[in-house]
Write a structure and sequence with these properties.
277 residues, alpha/beta, 10 helices, 15% strand, globular, SDR family NAD(P)-dependent oxidoreductase, SDR_fam, oxidoreductase
């Protein structure tokens, strides 16, 4: 019997990428699923495949940046299943742009989805996860929540915030001896459509950015990412790194401290997508 058998798991951003892979892996391990996304076409396909694996699925359109909607969603999920054991706060978007070329709205949009979406999901479901007596909150940060990259200031800010929020929450749960584990996940480059769906500042070419990510950075499959995450959940790990790039660059940052920034600058001058003339 799987450690996930009979557990009710909430997965946001389940319409593609890591979210879909998590949903299907959880389905195959006997979990009951509450799946959501703003991409209803992709979500429908995930639901079809999860149900084919025998999972009971509740499917909903959900914009995680809308707090009241997320709060209502949590109540609806509990009403449907009677409990919630796990939430995978996975929904996220990407943006590429320097600070001086990024509007306040560009930055706010990333923070609203990538940080506040995690906070909204965590706060909405935490009381129910505690009540389950066997709870786990899994928040998806990024390699860019461990070190900064030029032109990723908004994304870095959101993902660093997810890391800090999650690590603090984990310590709070440990101090309170609450029946809730907390795991923060730092994926490196994953073979998803996140870069192709990303927005960019006006001085960058979106196609160039997407091509650079897909060919140079995306090394790990969503399936491998999902398996690594679930392995970490089973072991109750506080932090999960995904991909050799995440492991190597996390080590680099630990060893060099702030000096890693000089290396990143040198590499970026040669490798990152160029700005428009």
């Amino acid at each position: 019997m799987s450690a996930f058998t009979g557990k009710v798991a909430v997965v946001t951003g389940a319409g593609s990428g890591i979210g879909r892979a998590l949903a299907l892996e959880l389905a195959g391990r006997g979990a009951k699923l509450a799946l959501s996304d703003v991409d209803t076409t992709g979500l429908d396909e995930t639901v079809r495949r999860a149900e084919a694996l025998g999972a009971e699925v509740k499917s909903d359109f959900l914009d995680v940046s809308q707090r009241e909607t997320v709060l209502d969603y949590a109540e609806a999920v509990v009403a449907h299943f009677g409990k919630v054991n796990q939430i995978y706060n996975n929904a996220g978007i990407a943006y590429h742009g320097d600070v001086d070329k990024s509007s306040f709205k560009d930055i706010e949009r990333i923070v609203d989805v990538d940080f506040w979406g995690v906070v909204n999901g965590t706060k909405a479901f935490l009381p129910h996860i505690q009540a389950s007596g066997d709870g786990h909150i899994i928040n998806i940060s990024s390699l860019f929540g461990l070190l900064a990259i030029p032109s990723q200031s908004a994304y870095n800010a959101a993902k660093f915030a997810v890391r800090g929020f999650s690590e603090s929450l984990r310590m709070e749960m440990l101090i309170a001896k609450a029946p809730v584990k907390v795991t923060v996940v730092h994926p490196g480059g994953i073979k998803t459509a996140i870069a192709r769906n990303a927005t960019v500042a006006e001085n960058y070419d979106q196609a160039d950015f997407a091509k650079f990510f897909d060919t140079k950075l995306a090394k790990t499959t969503p399936l491998d990412a999902a398996k690594t995450i679930l392995k970490g959940v089973e072991k109750g790990k506080g932090r999960v790194l995904i991909g050799s790039d995440a492991i190597a660059l996390d080590l680099l940052q630990r060893i060099t401290g702030s000096r890693y920034q000089g290396l990143i600058v040198a590499v970026s001058r040669r490798a990152l997508p160029r700005t428009k003339k």
